[in-house]
C-alpha cells in the first residue's frame, strides 16, 4: 500500500461526502450559507471524518450510515476553528492558507456562521435515520448521536475551549494543560473513532478500547501541533507560526522542551496503535494513519 496515494484518494472521497451535505447558498440567509461553505471548503486534513470511516471499516459496518456523521464532524470541527480565529480568541488572519472567515465576512458573520455550522451538524446527523432501516441500525445511530453530543459540549470540546480561554496567558500546570488537550482536541477524535465503532457494530468493550486509543491520538496530535508552532514555517502550516508564544500560552513545548515533547508524541502514538492492534481486526491504512501523525509537518 502506498500510504500517500491512499490518503489523497480517501481525502477526495471524503470531500465529496462533505460537499453533498453543504447548505444551498440561496435566499435571505445566503451570506451565512456562503460563510459556512467558505470555511468548510478551505481544505484541511479531514482527519476526523476519516477516522469515523476507517474505524467503521475496521468493524465491517455499512459505510453509507457513516456519511452524515462524517460531514457533521467536519462541520463541528470547522465551527471550532472559525471561532478560534475570532478577535476575541486567537485573533488569527489566516487558516489553511487563506484568510479566516471573519476577515472575509466580518466578525459578526464569523460568530453566526460558526454557530450555524454547529447547529447544522446536528440536522445532518439526524438524516442518518433515513438509511437506518433496522432496529439495530437505529439503536447504533442513537448511541452515536449521544457520543457526538457529549464529546462536543461542556464535557468535551467546548469545555476544554472554555478553560483554555479562561487561562489564556496565565501559567498552567501539566494537569490543566492535559485537561484542555483531552477535551479541546482529543474529545472530537474520541467521538470520531467511537462513532465509527458504534456504527460498525462494535461491542461496548471494543468501543471503550478505541476511545482510549483515540485519547492518546488526540494528545499526540495536539502536542505535535505545539511542536510545529515552533519548528514549522507559515507556508507549511498554512497559518501563522509562533502564535502560542505571541499569546503567552503554556504548552508541552514550554513545559518540557521540543525533544521530550516529541518523545511523548511517539509514546502516545505507539500506545494507540497497540490498542487498535489488540482488537485483532485489520485496517492497515488506519494503523499507518495514526503513526503518520507523529511525523506530520502541517
Automatic annotation (TrEMBL):
Pfam families: polyprenyl_synt. Keywords: Isoprene biosynthesis, Magnesium, Metal-binding, Transferase. Gene3D superfamilies: Farnesyl Diphosphate Synthase. Signal peptide: none annotated. Its cofactor is Mg(2+). It comes from the Bacteria. InterPro entries: Isoprenoid_synthase_dom_sf (IPR008949), Polyprenyl_synt (IPR000092), Polyprenyl_synt_CS (IPR033749), Prenyl_diphosphate_synthase (IPR053378). The keyword Phosphoprotein does not apply. Belongs to the FPP/GGPP synthase family. This is Polyprenyl synthetase family protein. It comes from Blautia faecis. The lineage of its organism: Bacteria, Bacillati, Bacillota, Clostridia, Lachnospirales.
